[in-house]
Design brief:
- With about 170 residues, the chain is mainly alpha-helical.
- It folds into two domains: about 80 residues; about 80 residues, no CATH class.
- It has six helices and four strands.
- Strands 1-4 form a two-stranded antiparallel ribbon. Strands 2-3 form a two-stranded antiparallel sheet.
Length: about 170
């Protein structure tokens, strides 16, 4: 009997069609935007969007060919792209990372990074809270010193840094 995590989450044909459609839309955006700024040959040579426009055309043509090939994939060749268990492992990392990136805007990179490292170490690594806290705070302090004080590279800051006079 097949376990739930061994069943396909997505098959090859569906993934190839989805990715091809994304590239097709990307090519259309490239063409549209470069046509908007000028994609013809002017009296003094090519306009700013001339070469990028034709790169977009190449992307569109390639995507269309790939789309037809993906649609033509037969059921026998439509192997799993990713299994449910594999997809779950990817999502365990991806979802917290997306939340982390979104939190940077509100909390600043240092506080968001501290929370992210603590939760990841505790949840996935099963480390003690003291190890999680010391590593995450140590990493964030080291990055703060390195980027803000030594390299003078300002990174996104939140309310804590503002309260400490670093904004």
């Amino acid at each position: 009997m097949e376990r739930s995590q061994d069943r396909p989450a997505v098959r090859r044909k569906a993934m190839e069609i989805a990715v091809t459609l994304l590239f097709l839309v990307f090519g259309l955006v490239v063409c549209w935007d470069n046509h908007r700024i000028g994609a013809s040959w002017g009296s003094d040579g090519p306009q700013a969007g001339y070469f990028p426009f034709y790169i977009g055309v190449i992307i569109i043509v390639s995507s269309a060919i790939t789309l037809f090939q993906a649609i033509a994939i037969k059921a026998a060749d439509n192997e799993p792209f990713v299994l449910r268990g594999q997809l779950k492992m990817v999502m365990v990392v991806m979802v917290p990372t997306v939340v982390y990136v979104a939190a940077i805007d509100w909390l600043g990179i240092y506080v968001a990074s501290t929370i992210y490292i603590v939760l990841f170490m505790r949840w996935l690594g099963k480390y003690s809270w003291i190890k999680c806290a010391s590593v995450s705070i140590g990493v964030s302090v080291a990055f703060f010193l390195m980027f803000e004080l030594w390299f003078k590279v300002p990174l996104p800051k939140g309310p804590l840094e503002a309260a400490l006079g670093f904004s």
